Amino acid sequence: MSDPGPFVSTRGLGRVFDVSKPWLNRMIEREEKVFLTAAENVTFDIPRGETFALVGESGSGKSTIAKMIVGLLRPSSGTVTVDGVDLFAQGDLAGQTALRRRIQMIFQDPYASLNPRWRVGDIIAEPVRAFGLEADARAIKRRVGELLEQVGLSALDGIKYPHEFSGGQRQRICIARALASKPEFIVCDEPTSALDVSVQSQVLNLMRDLQRDLGLTYLMISHDLSVVRYMADHIGVLYLGRLVETAPRAALFDAPRHPYTRMLLDAAPRLDAFGRTAETVVGEIPDPIDRPSGCHFHPRCTHNDGTRCVGEAPERLDLGRGRAVACHGVEEGRIGEGRP
Amino acid sequence: MIDRPLLSIRDLVVEFTTRRGVLRPVDGVGFDIARGEILGVVGESGAGKSMMGSAVVGLIDRPGRIASGAVLLDGEPIHRLSEEAMRRIRGRRIGMVFQDPLTSLNPLLRIGDQIVETIRTHLPVGEAEARRRAIAALDEVGIPAAARRIDSYPHEFSGGMRQRVVIALALAAEPDLVIADEPTTALDVSVQAQIIALLKRLCRERGAAVMLITHDMGVIAEATDRVAVMYAGRLAEIGPTPDVLTRPKHPYTVGLMRSTPSTLGAGGRLHQIPGSMPGLRAIPSGCAFHPRCPKAFARCDRERPDPIPTAAGAVACWLYDPEDPALSGAGEAEGTAT
Amino acid sequence: MTDHDGTRTRNGDATGAEALVAEPNWLKDKAVRFLDSDVYFSFKRSPVTIVAFSLVMLLVLGALLGPLIAPQNPHDPAQLNLMDGFTPPFSANQFTGSFYLLGTDDQGRDIFSAILYGLRISLFVGVVSVLFAGVLGVTLGLVSGYFGGWIDTLIMRIADIQLTFPSILIAMLIFGIARGLVPVEMRNDAALYILILSIGLSEWVQFARTVRGATLVEREKEYVQAARLIGLGRIPIMVRHVLPNVMGPVLVIGTIGLALAIIAEATLSFLGVGAPPTTPSLGTLIRVGQDFLFSGEWWIILFPSLTLLVLALSVNLLGDWLRDVLNPKLR
After folding, report:
1. Is the pTM of this model over 0.80?
2. Which run of H or of E encompasses A248?
3. Closest residue of chain C to A71, computed from CA coordinates
4. Best interface-test mutation with A: which of B272, B273, B280 has the largest number of A CBs within 10 A?
5. Cystine design at B249: which of A80, B315, C20, C244 (Cβ 3.0–4.6 Å)?
């Protein structure tokens, strides 16, 4: 086992949603079917024990990708492979079922992700029971207590209901539930965007500690660059369903290559920039149903050449050292490494 | 009286009487906003910042009420005005921008009609002139093809464009003060930058003061002149933004700044404040922050600190009490916190 | 002292051993919680609701204890005295001197007793048909909302079609068909069950539509996704996760539906297609009573009608109150 390869990898992952009106309306109003491409040709790898972050604004398809990677949503094209098992291939049901226990998810909204009618102990015990990880009720109870303590709550909290907890505590409960099946890979969909800053830091620190102690691999979905900078080893930037740039953390923040990454970094509010006005941002995110031709970013891009950028979708260009960019300007050498 | 503050909030208390007792989402907050100034109000959820903003414009629903204190607009008390008089002030003298643009826009009316209505309610101009001004206002907030888009309905705009319309509406009657409550929280980062820049530019141009309520320290840093930090319905600290953000005094502000991840910072471990904001039914005694405070000492859970003036602001913390002789080493009392 | 313990457990101050054993006093805990709840608080503050609740309780009690407190069994011919016929209420019979509180009918049947017995039938038919409609509607709504697709379309189109007819018409139609299928000698025995079936089938749509709407909301919530992630099947997710969270509005519809079912039953019986004369419900009593209305024996129709009115109105008021309490938007 010299090179086990990446733990998680996606190849050409894509998902198209049919957002047409009902059949009868289409017939009467003589409309075509309407499709939304939420994700298109998304390719990345996550090594074991690392954190990969997908960053993007609304319409970027980041949540769709997260759902496909945990198996909640079937891709329209491409593959997801976790530890050598293809999540959606025909005929490997046993492997896929075994894999399911090893993949878990932490959700964005700590108020909607816990069933309000269940006691916290039952919520956390459910995965333990479902996967048959503990034999009897007593062992399950003990395991639930351990899990609660592992996320910084008390074993006694198991008898309470979710509404008795604050947002941050609920997110801890969600983490405990995710850990209950002893997963190796956790997809975190905006885990702290609903939390306050002081509580967010508690949850982020907890997630990092757990990663270190349990050797977890994370896929983190976020719109917040500062959170991503704190958590991720590798970062992928999404724009309207396509991955425009992937790079190691330091490289991405210090020397972003894709014009959209640069814009995003400029737009992020900074704690030290008193009275600054971010002037570099132009235009708005287009409608994902009606995406611009060629490179989706070309209408907002200052490096738009007016021909190739408009007419041809840029391919993923491997720049080495874990970095890849999809941009004609970078490929042609028009956009250099230094920041403008 | 040239340098009379435009808005003066004095010891404002908002109370909700419920069957389980009286709740105080805003408890003794006071500060001034000068003409043309952008004041940030920052705090986490439950800090009472939005309730404070609503109290200023008289938008508190029953059973809530202003129990004591005063709100002075240009020296005139406005907290006891009738609903009718308050309505004249809202829109004319105080414009409002809320988090969700849809709460400020009537979905059934064309945006132009809403702006024209606001202008004509508050300013003595005719229909044609009001429409001309409305187009100019939309143009100014960056709506492309304003003359054509003026006849669109709110749902025909994207979230960012809608918020631009709301800003145009808030500024239509040329108010002296704009209260913006989390105006960019629902927007994407790139759109947020544009909206903040727009709000800043327009208010500067017209000399309108802004009360910018937000939970985002980055927005505070980039947009505001001064900042008020709220905790559990009370003012923790107020001062010029660079001072408060780079040299925070109140232990809560210190913790808040250190626990905020930054796009600049290295990947070191984030600071964390233990616990969470207390609920309104369980505000701790004395200083509301003392159970979470690393520097709390005996006095903190007994006596509530009032804001103590500092060089350019004020801080409500016993560590800065000039009359306390034992305060030479403020860090000594560390470890009292739970 | 005891109240104290309940509160302390909830605040998490109890010791480990106490909390780790399955709480033996959960019933007390529930009771404490109920007395502390918004529902109870709102109940205490609404005099109309208290009156309505008391009236419903009184009528239910009367129905349950009917055979014990009724002066006579109105369906036992041996207990009837023809001489007592047409006794006016609140006074003695001019021939026999017998006293009947609410008077008698032409057969000398005590109206008060007849109402108590009729109430039993009315409430029984009402409650059971609402339960039937509820189980059917909740199941179909849950399936419709959670599965979606063609099964959803099918169920909802049937519901739409049914809604275009007045429900009483549907009930009569089903009653007619079902009665036709039952052998003649069993018709009287089966009449009540056919009545329940027809009222239930005419009322399931409300339940189904409401539950479907709530299910569509709950289905998208993240706790359902979390359950899917651990490999739970659709039926367990529906039953264990979604169902408990869509039951709030069902309670409201059920209460208001009870009033509707009681009235539907009375209407059918009044029209002569409902409860048979051997087991008369309030509706049957009203039908019988109307024959005497113009000959001056007003009490035979008035008192059963009043009972029906009070029952339906009180149940309806309770339903309205429940809806307001459980709907946070109206508070």
Report:
1. yes
2. strand A242-248
3. C229
4. B272
5. B315
